[in-house]
C-alpha cells in the first residue's frame, strides 16, 4: 500500500487549466483516468487526509504510485481525451458498464444489390440501416413476419439466394407471397430496392402517409368492384397496424429521443435506456456497473452517455437526450453530442407531461434490472469480495488476491501440447490479458514438465520487464535469466504487451505434482512473493506447495466457487486453442495430398490412429485394418507419409533459438469468443 504523499505533486506544479489526469500503479499500469475543469483543484482533492476520502477513492490513491496529467484547451477536448484513454487503458478503478446481454437489432443491408432484412448483432456496418436494439430476437422476427406481407423484401442468406437463382425457383417465401423473389427476376433490382426503402421508411416512423395511401387504394378497389384486391389491401393494413402496436405510441409529437434512468445503491448502479423514434419505443438496453469510484447520479449519467455515444455518429445520436440528473459539464457534453450528431442536441431533465411519465417507466425498469442483477451470484460485488477474502484466509495470504492467473495444459495423446493462461481481476475475467502457449521443448504426455515450462516462460517475461524499468539489478538478472534479457515486454505508455506485472495468486489445474512444478519454476527465478495453489478436479481439493494434505473448502464456499470458475475458464481456453491447432493440422496435413483419399477415409485414419505421427509409424497391414482402406490405398498413404517431412518449430536464423508462441487471446483464429468446453 503506497502513501499518497510520496507521489503528491509539488505546490504550483499542477496547472490551473482543463485537462485529463492518469493515476498509475507501481507497475506503470493506468488504474484511473479522470478529467477536470481545473487540474489543480481536482488533483488536490485526492491528496487530503485518507479519512476524509470515499473508501473507494482511498483505495485507488493508495494503490497508485504516480500521477500525471495532460493539459487541453477546452472542456470538450478533455471529455474526448478522457473517453479515448478509458477505452484504451481500461482502468480498473473507472466505472465500467456491462451489458446485461447482447442486444439484437433489425438490419436492412442497403449496401447490397438486393437489400436483405435480418436480425443482426455486434458492431454496426457501413451502408446498413439499423432499427432497435430490441430486447429479444423473436420480437424482431414477429414484426418482420407481419411486414413482409406488405413489403416482400428478401430475407434469405446469400447461399439460399444464389441457389434459387441457379435452379430458377424461389424459396418457400417466394411461393407464399412474403418475398418478391428477385432471385428469379420477378422484380427488378430497382423495384426491390424501392420496397426496401419503403420498409425502412415505415420502420423509421413515417407510417401515417403510407397507411393513408393503402386505405385510399382499398376504397378505390372496392368502388371498382375488385373485391379480392380490396380484401388483400385490408389485410395488409391490419398487418401493419399490428406491427405498429408492438411499439406502443408514447409521445404524440413524433419525438426522436433517448431516455436514461439510473437505479443505484452504495455498491452498484443500473442504467436503463429507452430509444424513442417517431414517438414510439423502438428499442431498450440496460447496463450494470460496480461503483468502484466515488460517483453520484450525475456522474453515472455522464459515463453512460460516453459509453453509448462514443462510437455513434449521425442519426444514431437523437435530437433529444433526457436524463434524471444533469452532469457537471453539461455544456461540454451537449457540444460533444452535437459534434457526434452534426446538429444541435438537447440534453435536459423532463419536467412534466408524457416525457416525464415515460421517464418514470424507464426508472422502474432500471430498479427491476438492479434487483435482478443482485440475484446473479457471479456478478455481485459483495459476493466477489467475500470469495476473495475466503481464498486469502484458506491459503493464509497477506491480503485478498486481486489478480489471479490460472494455467492449464491441453493435448491429444501427447500431440499438439498447448497451455493457457487466464486472468481474473477483482473476481472478474479480464479476457484482454488471456495468453496461449505452444509447448515445444519436448513431446509426450507430461503435464508436470509442461506446467514448469509455461510458468517459467510467463514469469521470465515479468522479470525482463523489471530489468528494463530498473526495478531489478543486472546481477539478479544474470542469476535468474542466465544473462539474457530477451525481448521487451512493455512500452512506456501504461500498456504492457505481455507479462509486465505479477499476480498475487497462481492457480494451476492439477494436484501436488503440478503445484510443485509451478512452485519450482518460481523459485528458480527467485520469485517468492507470488502464492501458488492447485485445484484438483477429482474432489475439488485445493493443494498447496509442500503440503501432504489438501485444503478442503466447503462446497457452499464462495471462494471455492471462484476458484472453480477460474480453473474451468482456463480449461475451456486451453481446449479451444488445442482443438483449433488440431483442426488446422488436419486440414493442411500430408493426407490432403494423397490421391483418391476423401475426407471420410482421411478422418477414419486419424480417428483410428489418433494422430498423423502414429499413422506414419504404422505398417501397411495396420493401415489396412481401418474400415474402407484397401491395400492399394494403404500403400499410397504410407508412401505419401514417408515422403512428407514433419514441420518443426520455427527457428530464429540469427540466434538459433526456437521462436515461442505466446499470443494474446484476441490474436489469431483461436480467439476467446468461442464457447467450446
Structural features:
single chain; 677 residues; alpha+beta; eight-stranded mixed sheet; six-stranded mixed sheet; 21 helices; 16% strand; flat; disordered C terminus
How would you describe the overall organization of this protein?
Helix content is 41%, strand content 16%. It is α+β, with helices and mostly antiparallel strands. Helix 4 (137-147) runs antiparallel to helix 9. Strands 13, 14, 15, 16, 17, 18, 19 and 20 form an eight-stranded mixed sheet that branches. Strands 4-10-9-8-11-12 form a six-stranded mixed sheet.
In short, what is this structure?
This protein is 41% helix and 16% strand.
The geometry reads as flat
Q: Give the overall pLDDT as a whole number.
A: 78
Task: Report on the biggest sheet.
Answer: 8 strands, mixed
* Alpha-beta content class: alpha+beta
Number of DSSP helical runs: 21
Please estimate the helix content.
40-55%
Report the C-alpha radius of gyration, rounded.
Answer: 31 Å
Distance between the termini: 39 Å
Topology of this protein?
Blueprint: E1 19-24, E2 30-36, H1 39-46, H2 55-63, E3 66-71, H3 75-89, E4 98-99, E5 105-108, E6 117-120, E7 129-131, H4 137-147, H5 158-167, H6 172-175, H7 189-203, H8 208-223, H9 227-245, E8 257-264, E9 268-277, E10 280-290, H10 297-309, E11 320-322, H11 330-341, E12 346-348, H12 353-374, H13 381-395, E13 403-412, E14 415-425, E15 428-429, E16 435-438, H14 447-469, H15 474-481, E17 505-509, H16 512-524, E18 531-536, E19 541-543, H17 558-587, H18 599-609, H19 612-617, H20 620-624, H21 631-643, E20 662-664
Parallel strand pairs: 8-11, 11-12, 13-17, 17-18
Antiparallel strand pairs: 1-2, 1-3, 4-10, 5-6, 5-7, 8-9, 9-10, 13-14, 14-15, 14-16, 16-20, 18-19
